[in-house]
Amino acid sequence: MEITTLTTDLNHHQAQDDNPNDSGGLTAAQYKVVCDQGVNDIKDYLNGTHIPQLDAEHLPYIYGGTQTIKTTMETLTAGVMPDASVTPAKASTDFLYGVIGALSAITPATADKIPFLDTSGSVAGYATVENMAGALKPLLYTSGSYAGNDTNDRPITLGFQPSAVLILPYGGIYAGGSLLNLALALASVPAQNLSVTATGFTVSGPLNYSPSSPYGSDRSPYRYIALR
Q: Where exactly are the structural domains of the chain?
């Protein structure tokens, strides 16, 4: 549904006679009403058409819920996008300062470098694209490995809630056969033996066999990649 535009003619003053009291026969009170009619038309449009359309149609469409303008504004949190695409970790000033601090001291020998300036405008250091990508990596994903220990619902702590986790046993390759040889879980959609948690993920069964178990000698260590 498109937002209804304001098409009301607001030229109330221009429509009056040059001498509205004499020619038009308007009383002083009637002429005051004419003077205020334009702003009242705008007020009626905003309160009676525009805002109700936003509440009923456009905010639920954008955010997938039933929020009104008022409730949406009241629930906003500094540093967090309404659709949760920008997490507190991504908006953290400490993280940004850490990235800049790590890059500004780097002085590569090649000419392909990006200068970083201090507050006076002087060059404080340089960074290459590779340096930049390496510094920004923690903002996008983390990877690692773990040895199985034959427990169920074993927590693997990352320090953040990932949006997705992919685990590969068997030396980091997909060995075929059973679907248990490859696992992908989303924050809202767990996989068999793999679930995302607020601080990382949990593993069970074939995703946590110990090296000494009958089925774990060729699986462990398990490799994983977790997207932020």
A: 1-76, 88-138, 147-227
